[in-house]
Amino acid sequence: MKHFFKAAGIVSSIAAFSILFASVTGFDIISETSAFSDMQNNIREMIPAGKSEFSKRRYVGLGGDVFGIKMYTEGIIVIGIDSVTTAIGKASPAEKAGIRNGDIITHINSEKISSALEMTEMLEKSNGREMTLTIKRNDSVMELKLIPVLSSAGKYKAGIWVRDSSAGIGTITFYDDERASFAGLGHGVCDIDTGRIMPLSDGQAVTAKVNGYYKSSAGNPGELCGIFSDESLGSLRANLESGIFGTLDYPSAAKRIPVALESEVCEGKAQIVATIDSSGPQYYDIEIVKVYPSSDRSTRNMIIKVTDSGLIEKTGGIVQGMSGSPIIQNSMLVGAVTHVFVNEPSQGYGIFASRMADALDETLNESAA
Questions:
Q1: Is 323 a catalytic residue?
Q2: 277: left (phi over 0), alpha (psi -120 to 50) or beta
Q3: What is the pLDDT of residue 3?
Q4: Which of 145, 150, 234, 286 is most deeply packed, by most CB within 10 A?
Q5: The one catalytic residue among 65, 166, 308, 354
Q6: pLDDT digit string (tens) for 234-285?
Q7: CATH assignment of 3-71+165-368, given 1.10.150.20, 1.10.10.410, 3.40.50.300, 2.40.10.120?
Q8: Which of 187, 242, 252, 339 is catalytic?
């Protein structure tokens, strides 16, 4: 059975794109693009790692294809506080307990909770007795006391709206077939209501196909429209500020490309590899107009501008769902698209590819520990 989704994003002065990936074995999207000779590529195999040391250049499989995300949270996210209509008026148990938007409820009465349905069932069985909720708020863990109230409909409620899952499409940045893994998006999957990164409990990457898009215009970022199926590509392992990372069920067989150091990224001409229709990953011309070297700007390490007239004519520039599209410069993977400027959709931010590669390594090492 197929599911239909449109890429979703956060609309503010910039917009972050929405979500996940698909294997592309039928596209040779790197051939005919190298500007370097075999000799230069051999020299690039070794890169300086210090004043007197050298380390081997990292290679990955080039992405650019869309994929679908099915993501389940660790605990449930509070996305709204509301009042409950009772026989004697309105009451707000959640507000009285001190619960806030963005809180993550992980346990009720010391029992682990992972879905909105579980919470509903526990509330209905409470008979109005006090419940102890374990809450994660930013970097803190606390316990709050909640007393459900009997609604006019005859059910015990807390006056709270929660979310326990998310789904959508996005773009794969690169594959690491040696470690059967992948990296995508270039930014974390955030809850659309709270804007906070969703805590990942479990999730799946599935095959996807783009079947259209809405064009971007000033003040109105466009989006890719996609279809994804139940065919698994792999499992999600981490949802981080620098992207979403997972393991593959089978090798991607994607074309290998070297990963640039942050110091090798420079202002000037470049390309992105993106999928905007059924033709699959294609190269589009851009310009890197600003680089923030060795910065702590998280997902905003560079500013890019789309210069490809064909892409601008079709999509207006960057659209939601292109998040994770690889950025290529000097035949190296230098970064990934992360955000679009809402009022100037031909421009956006990018993250260094090396930071995504480091985050993938950390994720895999933690899983193996």
A1: yes
A2: beta
A3: 39
A4: 286
A5: 308
A6: 999 999 999 999 999 999 989 999 999 999 999 999 999 999 998 899 999 9
A7: 2.40.10.120
A8: 187
